[in-house]
Structures are given as structure tokens and as C-alpha cells.
Amino acid sequence: MRPQSRSPKATPLRTARPPPLPPSAYFNNPRTDSQISPSLPYIVSFSQDDEASASSDPVWSQLVSNAQLQAEEEPLLVSFLYSTILNHNSLESALAFHLANRLASSSMISTQVQSLFLEAFSSSPSISSSIRSDILAVASRDPACTSVVDVVLYFKGFHALVTQRVARQLWLSGRENIASYLQSQMSQVFQIDIHPGAKLGAGIMLDHGTGIVIGETAVVGDNCSILHHVTLGGSGKKDVDRHPKIGDGVLIGAGCSVLGNIEVGDNVQIGAGSLVIGGIPKDSVVVGVPAKVIGTIARDEKVDLEDSPAELMRQNVMEICENNQFNI
């Protein structure tokens, strides 16, 4: 038998890959208004309703503007910025989408988590106000923050705060089980464990965030800054009010533990690594294990927010004392 002839293998079609284009090739002329129109493959534009929404919400307007600028500077981020910010018409919509994708699991898809966030935002307007204060707090206090885009997209301390605010709303409305799910996912994804029952004020910064634990009956006042590996823990195992009550403007340094149902007054600074097991008067500086008062903030009149320890973020307690900003 004559062997069957084999047709030669077809040579695969090869196309030359074009050289990388400079960022300017993806966009039109330099931006002169609030709209960007990159050429293919992305188109980002805003309707009149979107522009009206941005103009009535300064934080959202700044976020959109910063996202547009970053998209112009880094084309590789255009798709990401579009899906997380520029494709939305409100801060709430953007956060619900972004955090849902971070907190989803194999058994709880992102659209389900997204609906939980949107439900909480719509049922509790105070959440919207608080998260805007949180964004501005981080942007003003963290020197590593270059824009509000960083806070919203990349800072897990802020992500955990928003998640806890949503979980707390669900908890208060009687949906403890789904609130516990969000707490569990928050702990797994962000390495931050805040019970849905904890009450957190507005203008909070969780700097770095890793290892922060805040218990069920804890209360944190407005405009506080809490660094990584801080525990606001209980004392004992009885189901009672067992966690700390933190005042306004408080700075809690890295690695601190504040234990039991004790009161920490307004504008207190707790040095890194301290163990607090007793109440602290307002305007005090405490350090040590156990923590002791080493100074008080010298004030002739009521403290301004801009002068609070949480806002100043000066963590070297001894340096501050040497500069005579405290009475020893």
C-alpha cells in the first residue's frame, strides 16, 4: 500500500506586536474639564446627572477628579479605575462595588455582598456622612496618602471601617448572622477584627490596620487615630458591657492594649506598646506597662480638632514633652 501523503502543517499566522504606546497615545489633548475620553479600548464619560452628583458632593467630586488624573498618568490602571470609580455616580455605589469584590467568597458572590452594602447605605444616611469624614481624616493625617483614591481603593484600614459600619447597621436591624459573616470576611481579608456591635464615631483613621481588634461593647469617639496591632478588649467572659470607651481626638499608638470597661478621656495620647487597664483623664499622655500618666497637654482653652493628638499624629511622646507641648 502506498503510504498516505501528509499535507504539510500550516504555518501559524503571526502578527507583529506593536511597540508599547506612550500614555499620551491613549488620550486626547490634555484635560481641560471634568471629562476624559481615551481612545480605544476604553471610553470614560459622564452624563449631566453624574456631573451634578459630583458637584453636590465635594468628596466624590475630588475622588472622580483624582481618578481621572491617575488614569491619564497610568494607562494600565484605566480599566481598574473605570470599574471601581469612574463607572459609578456616587461614592456609595463605588464603595459597594469595590468592597463587594474584596469580601466575596465562593459561596457568597460579589453581587450579593454589594446589595448588602447598598441596602445599609440607603437605610442609614449617617454611614455616608461617617465614611466621608473617614476619607478626609486619612487624607489629612497620613503622609503616605497621595490622594483620596489611595484611601478608597487601597487602604485596608478604611475598607474595614466601611465594612464594620455596614455590618453594624445589619446587626442593629436584627440580621446578626449576615453581620457576623461580614465580620469574618473582614478579619480574613483585611486582618482587622471589629465586632459589628462596636460603636465607632466619624473621622476615624485605622493606620496600617493589621492586627487591630475591637470588641463588641467598645465605643470609639469622633476623630480618633488607631495604629496597627491595637486591642480594645474585654476583661472577663461575662456577657456584659466589658470593653473600653474611647473619647474624641484620641491617638492610640501601635501595639497598645486597652482592656476592660474603662474610660479614656478626650484628646488622650497613648504611647506605643502600652497596656491600659484603668481610666485615663482627658488631655493626658500615658505610656508603659501598665500605662501611667507622664504628662498633660498644656491648653489655655478648649482644644481644636487640628491640635488633637489624633490629628497631629506625633508618636514620639518624649520628643513632644521635650518640645514643651506637655506639662510634665
From TrEMBL:
The keyword Transport does not apply. InterPro entries: Hexapep (IPR001451), LbH_SAT (IPR045304), Ser_AcTrfase_N (IPR010493), Ser_AcTrfase_N_sf (IPR042122), Ser_O-AcTrfase (IPR005881), Serine_acetyltransferase (IPR053376), Trimer_LpxA-like_sf (IPR011004). One of its GO terms (molecular function) is serine O-acetyltransferase activity. The keyword Signal does not apply. Residues 59-163 form the Serine acetyltransferase N-terminal domain. SMART domains: SATase_N. Keywords: Acyltransferase, Amino-acid biosynthesis, Transferase. Belongs to the transferase hexapeptide repeat family. This is serine O-acetyltransferase. It comes from Triparma columacea. The lineage of its organism: Eukaryota, Sar, Stramenopiles, Ochrophyta, Bolidophyceae.
